[in-house]
Amino acid sequence: MTLHSFTEEQGLLIDLVKRIGEEYIAPYALEWDEKEQYDPLPMRALADADLFGIIVPKEYGGLGMGVFEMALAVEYLSYYCAGVSTTFAASFLGAYPIILFGNKEQKEKYLPEIAKGKKLLAFALTEPQAGSDAFAIKTTAKREGDFYILNGVKQWITNGGIADLYVVIALTDPTKGPRGASAFIVERGDPGFSFGKKERKLGLKASVTTDLIFNDCKIPKDRLLSKEGMGFMVALKTLDYARCGAGAQALGIAQAAIDVSIKHAKRRIQFGQPVYQFQAVSHTFAEMAMRLEASRALVYSVAKYIDSGAKDFSGASAMAKCFATDQAMWICERAIQMMGGYGYMRDYPVQKYFRDVKCLQIYEGTNEIQKNIIARELAKLYK
Amino acid sequence: MDKVIVCIKGVPKPGTVKVDPETHTLKRESAELILNPMDRSALEMAMRLKDKYNCEVVVITMGPPNAVPLLREAYSLGADKMILLSDRLFAGSDTLATSRVLARAISNLKPFSLVLMGLKSIDGETAQVPPETASLLGLPSVTNVKQISVEGEKVIVVRETDYSEEEIEVDLPAVLSVTPYLDYYRPPSFKRMLEARKLDPLILSAQDLALPEELLGLKGSPTQVHSVFEKKIMERGEIWEGSPEELAKRLIDLLKEKEIFKN
Lengths: 383, 263
Description:
The structure holds 2 protein chains of 2 kinds.
Chain A lengths: L7 H18 L3 H7 L5 H8 L18 H14 L1 H20 L2 H12 L5 E4 L15 E5 L2 E12 L6 E7 L9 E7 L5 E3 L13 E12 L3 E2 L5 H37 L1 E2 L2 E2 L4 H29 L6 H26 L1 H4 L5 H11 L6 H14 L3
Parallel strand pairs in A: 1-4
Antiparallel strand pairs in A: 2-3, 3-7, 4-5, 5-8, 6-7, 9-10
Chain B lengths: L2 E6 L1 E3 L20 E3 L3 H15 L2 E7 L5 H10 L3 E5 L9 H13 L6 E5 L10 H9 L3 E11 L2 E7 L4 E7 L2 E5 L11 H7 L5 E3 L39 H14 L6
Parallel strand pairs in B: 1-4, 1-6, 4-5, 5-11, 6-10, 7-10
Antiparallel strand pairs in B: 2-3, 7-8, 8-9
Helix pairs in contact in B: 2-5, 3-4
């Protein structure tokens, strides 16, 4: 309802993502959800459209765009299928550490292929006993000559098994606690690296989630990102950048939920008139629209703030992620209610939005953890 | 495989088309043009050849100046050069007159390996232009091709027929029309979309192509359109209401009455 101004390039980007959504996603999204199927088709199209290169610097063959453009692409993709946008956005989560912390050789080796969409990525921090308590990770990486030997299990990793490159956080010095963690690039096919079973999820079913298993996984020492001991620095900075992506997913899903349910409410006749004519219904839509627009304004503003060169934006990006995903959860729940029985039926997409959007309050840092971050940053302002 | 030429056509966006009341031909200059959907197959096939053989892809269209965005679209899909054949004299051309213009423009681009076109356009629906152009150029023509593999100077193509597939060996250069059913169509590249905004096609007129007026447009077209009419949608049928048993009996009686059912 509110108008956001876009540059000509951003406008073209949005049009292209919509086109990909209409042609390569919309006809299949409900089927992928029903069959719990990952189909590489939209990834192929996104790669051919250069869109894996959005955040990759131009010197490495990317588009050299910012967090805002990344968020726009993710938002419009999520409108069509949040499972697909999760696969896409998780790849950015794996690409950010290389863009932000990779050395020249690592960037030259990996970024051109990433920009072309020839290498899908994943980011692996979570472990069975280390979710919100990320510092409790146990996976180790022991230096042996020119190699590191990784041992441990990473849990619920988006793109597990389908990604080509994995950024993995592991302890190089378990005695140092969080300061003993380091970040590594692990390639699919590295010896001792395997995958657990595909997880069965409530939503985001077009995306793949598995465990990563490291059993004396041997990788060359030049796969270390940044320096030993910088693992959590790499992880936290990456999440700061990527959180707008989760917020943007929420915008796309919520917009889709409103679009589908309002069309229904304006057509569905009960008591001799479209149900939209009842104030209880129309006011609910008014509330849904307000919450979505407020979320959009926040996500866009934080993304632009990051792109303006801001140094400290943990609190801002946590706000964008937490607020937008909470609102989207509420909007999707209301969208089902506004459609009544139709909303509950699997022939209509709103129940899918509702199941998909739930994960956004959980992954990339639960919304409770986001509030911890916001509270921590807030306290700094009132010393 | 050095150069592949792709001919594309702008067709009126369904719902925006108007017919010229005098000539009974489509008013293309006022319509919103979209890329003929079947031409996307020709472009995709050309890009696959480009991926494999690094050949140059030249895209040609005959049409009014509002066809330029379609050429830019072809560029963003991977075409290297854009040519627009545009002249008032071309207006109203039937398939033969069109093929004459295309054949002349293609001939000027020699040497080339292949000319690719869509099977047919969704406005004309004749599927005549690819074979007519081949004939005017004196080149082999194969229609409804789904696969192209190059072996030296020869090309092995697989074409779809109504009942099966045929494998045909053709000498290069050749003119092929491509099946509308490929397994994948790439979207435009964002980088090339940005570049295409600033690029203009080479525009060639009848004079540039040294084509005489009498062979062009309505004058040069043996096809004369006598009239056009809008197809009427069938009127709403009868609606019967009643129990299934009653309705079944009524239907059987009717079928007997019409002598479709015989006792």
